[in-house]
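About this split. The held-out portion is used to measure sequence recovery: a designer receives only the structure tokens and must propose an amino acid at every position. Recovery is the fraction of positions where the proposal matches the reference. Here is one held-out target exactly as it appears in the evaluation file.
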């Protein structure tokens, strides 16, 4: 066997399916067609969920999973008999858990043999994958050991075939040949050790994603695949939370300089993949922002630590003896702080009690580790910006890794997604100017740039609203959510008179949060549309007056105000706002449920006052819940609907439930309204209750842009600033919520000579910043800047601070 003949392909549990097997076969044929001297080792994991069943001693369900695959592949009964023989003989838990990989490899081998697809040989990994240590306890599942692939044994097992199939995850001990398990993610390590043994020309890790991302794509929708990354950086990224592959598997390939590629079984032809290789460092690249959730922090303090040898051994010996792994360690003269991802509460309490015998200990739970991973991380220009973002939150630990690849922040779980989003926006997303330009061409304002430029000849700053876009957004909601019985526009988002009139003409209602908003609709605009009134902590007189207005639904935010003022509410029909304790949103300041949110009454508070409500003939006709703003996952409203329907069963006369609003406007991750609508339709088959929603931002945000001319361009200590004619006096959201608005120099959209700028306004406040670290064309005074998604919570929140007038408003029909 000569060097550069071998390719190792590892297929994960998500690839063990009929479609996955066909992808394996297709890739084998591709490789063999390129060079007839190529040889291939296929390393297979257990079918997805099989190992989880086996760890729970649930052989029955594990077998059913795999037998269904046998049916899908149309294999004969002989395979089933063979599977029965394979699973009948196991001596201990380790042998039971190893059955997953044995099943998948045998099924795949039978499939390609029966159909004469590939001439391959099935190997037993236990024979040539070796652990250096032996088991002391037969009940021990995973062995703490180094592993290697034995070439001498492997070469005796192989013949003249070009393709060999073997199991990942499984090995045996060196002397006793006891079966052992390499650990979760062990199939990656198996494949890497085999590649190292064979001096393979490459290794491919096939899974259900295309590679390593700049952030978890389930949380950051504009995250991108990292095209190429070095071994050390990839290992750091995997260890800090990127779960695409196991960090240990990188080392054997690094030692032999074997390139690794992550590929997607279900996106076979994609050329967008992550390649891990001996990459030349640029010292200028931040690869990703990662997070690890449900972390516990221990702060361990004692004055006796100073000049006292052995206290570190004493402290971490207690963790080690209990089998508790630690992640981050920081020290000072009198304090040690460390983190663990251990989820066993009894163990955590035990180590806390042991430490408390000798030290002052504080245990902080529900934490997250948010990490920035990149080359020479302390020298990255974005780290100063990251510190400015992070300092607004409660930080338990700041940690700089010894290899200078990671800076980590230990924060509260509730803040982690918010921080992750902001760091990704400022350190990674801001680099994607060219990608954004492709999307810009589809915007309504891009198609009308000539008219907009003419308008700005007479204005220094201006809010411009496209009324036709407002109409289209409402039509989109009606089209995709026909199961919704009534849409109420949340007019706090934008109360421009012509915008309101346009919305009213579409026959939807209005959600008002103050009586002044109600009077504006009724008295000023003479509108008769339905209104849902949802105040919080308002004067009692507002409730009194609202309860006497026709075509209005009054929602009470706090049951205490009813109990303390029965005479106001008796014999009236109302709705109740319930805090389901499931707040969500793009920033902690827009989360409107949970302990820290001022809105609504808890479920228990509401249920406990039902008897009083009934005795006083207070008719609760509706239930309302609103989680927050900027939510993209349709399941948020599904969960709200399910919860409110269950609570409604405790009442006698519920006619409607209001799912709230908070629809986000992230076009890279559109809300799946179809699935939301399907779920509501299913609920409506079991109830006569009507469903309401309150979209505000979704209807008007993208319909509005903020335009402003450049007043100054300057550089200060390597930071370049663009000053606009307006700032936080017109648009408060970046200052108030750290919100991210895309910003464009529409005078020079086609210019590719890009520079990183901070965009600021003329207000005498350090917080008057509209955007940081934005890649933009070289900019000059009087260039026109456009800020996207400014139609919601823009002008309505503007002010005359510094006696500077905010941008004016203008409406168009494009």
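Reference sequence for scoring:
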């Amino acid at each position: 066997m000569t060097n550069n003949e071998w390719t190792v392909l590892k297929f994960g549990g998500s690839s063990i399916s009929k479609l996955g097997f066909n992808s394996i076969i297709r890739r084998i044929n591709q490789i063999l067609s390129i060079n007839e001297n190529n040889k291939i080792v296929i390393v297979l994991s257990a079918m997805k969920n099989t190992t989880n069943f086996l760890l729970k001693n649930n052989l029955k369900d594990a077998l059913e999973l795999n037998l269904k695959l046998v049916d899908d592949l149309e294999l004969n009964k002989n395979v089933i008999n063979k599977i029965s023989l394979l699973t009948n003989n196991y001596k201990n838990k380790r042998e039971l858990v190893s059955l997953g990989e044995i099943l998948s490899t045998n099924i795949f081998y039978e499939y390609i043999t029966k159909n004469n697809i590939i001439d391959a040989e099935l190997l037993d990994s236990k024979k040539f994958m070796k652990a250096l240590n032996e088991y002391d306890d037969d009940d021990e599942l995973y062995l703490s050991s180094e592993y290697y692939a034995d070439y001498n044994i492997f070469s005796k097992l192989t013949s003249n075939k070009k393709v060999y199939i073997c199991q990942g995850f499984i090995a045996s001990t060196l002397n006793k040949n006891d079966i052992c398990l390499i650990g979760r993610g062990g199939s990656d390590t198996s494949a890497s050790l085999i590649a190292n043994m064979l001096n393979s020309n490459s290794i491919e890790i096939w899974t259900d994603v295309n590679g390593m991302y700049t952030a978890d794509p389930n949380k950051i929708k504009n995250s991108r695949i990292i095209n190429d990354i070095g071994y050390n950086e990839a290992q750091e990224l995997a260890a800090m939370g990127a779960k695409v592959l196991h960090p240990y598997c990188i080392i054997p390939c690094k030692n032999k300089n074997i390139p690794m590629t992550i590929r997607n079984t279900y996106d076979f032809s994609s050329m967008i993949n992550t390649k891990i290789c001996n990459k030349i460092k640029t010292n200028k690249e931040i690869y990703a922002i990662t997070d690890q959730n449900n972390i516990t922090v221990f702060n361990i303090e004692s004055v006796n630590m100073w000049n006292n040898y052995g206290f570190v051994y004493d402290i971490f010996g207690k963790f080690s003896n209990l089998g508790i792994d630690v992640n981050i360690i920081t020290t000072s003269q009198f304090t040690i702080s460390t983190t663990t991802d251990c989820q066993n509460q009894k163990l955590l309490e035990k180590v806390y009690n042991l430490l408390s015998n000798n030290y002052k200990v504080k245990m902080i739970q529900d934490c997250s580790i948010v990490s920035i991973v990149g080359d020479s991380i302390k020298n990255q220009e974005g780290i100063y910006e990251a510190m400015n973002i992070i300092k607004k939150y409660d930080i338990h630990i700041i940690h700089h890794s010894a290899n200078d690849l990671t800076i980590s922040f230990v924060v509260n779980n509730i803040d982690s997604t918010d921080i992750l989003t902001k760091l990704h926006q400022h350190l990674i997303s801001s680099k994607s100017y060219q990608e954004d330009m492709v999307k810009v061409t589809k915007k309504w304002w891009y198609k009308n740039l000539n008219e907009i430029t003419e308008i700005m000849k007479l204005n220094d700053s201006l809010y411009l609203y496209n009324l036709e876009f407002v109409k289209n957004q409402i039509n989109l909601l009606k089209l995709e959510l026909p199961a919704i019985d009534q849409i109420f526009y949340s007019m706090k988002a934008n109360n421009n008179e012509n915008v309101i009139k346009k919305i009213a003409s579409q026959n939807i209602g209005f959600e008002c949060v103050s009586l002044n908003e109600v009077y504006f609709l009724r008295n000023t605009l003479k509108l008769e549309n339905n209104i849902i009134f949802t105040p919080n902590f308002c004067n009692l007189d507002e409730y009194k007056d609202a309860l006497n207005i026709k075509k209005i639904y009054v929602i009470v935010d706090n049951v205490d105000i009813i109990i303390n003022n029965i005479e106001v509410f008796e014999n009236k029909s109302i709705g109740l706002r319930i805090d389901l304790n499931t707040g969500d949103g793009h920033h902690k300041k827009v989360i409107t449920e949970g302990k820290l949110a001022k809105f609504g009454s808890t479920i228990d508070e509401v249920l406990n006052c039902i008897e009083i409500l009934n005795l006083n003939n207070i008719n609760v006709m509706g239930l309302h819940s609103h989680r927050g703003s900027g939510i993209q996952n349709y399941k948020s409203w599904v969960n709200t609907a399910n919860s409110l329907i269950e609570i409604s069963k405790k009442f006698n006369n519920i006619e409607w439930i209001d799912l709230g609003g908070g629809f986000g406007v992230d076009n890279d991750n559109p809300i799946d309204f179809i699935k939301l609508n399907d779920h509501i339709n299913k609920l409506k088959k079991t109830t006569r209750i009507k469903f309401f929603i309150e979209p505000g931002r979704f209807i008007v945000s993208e319909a509005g842009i903020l335009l402003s001319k450049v007043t100054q361009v300057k550089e200060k200590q390597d930071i370049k600033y663009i000053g606009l004619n307006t700032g936080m006096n017109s648009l408060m959201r970046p200052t108030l919520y750290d919100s991210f608005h895309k910003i464009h120099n529409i005078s020079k959209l086609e210019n590719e000579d890009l520079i990183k700028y901070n965009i600021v306004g003329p207000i005498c406040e350090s917080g008057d910043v509209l955007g940081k670290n934005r890649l933009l064309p070289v900019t000059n005074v009087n260039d026109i800047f456009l800020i996207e998604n400014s139609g919601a919570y823009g002008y309505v929140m503007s002010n005359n601070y510094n006696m500077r007038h905010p941008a004016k408003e203008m409406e168009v029909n494009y």
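Annotator remark: Residues 83 and 103 are 7 Å apart (CA to CA).
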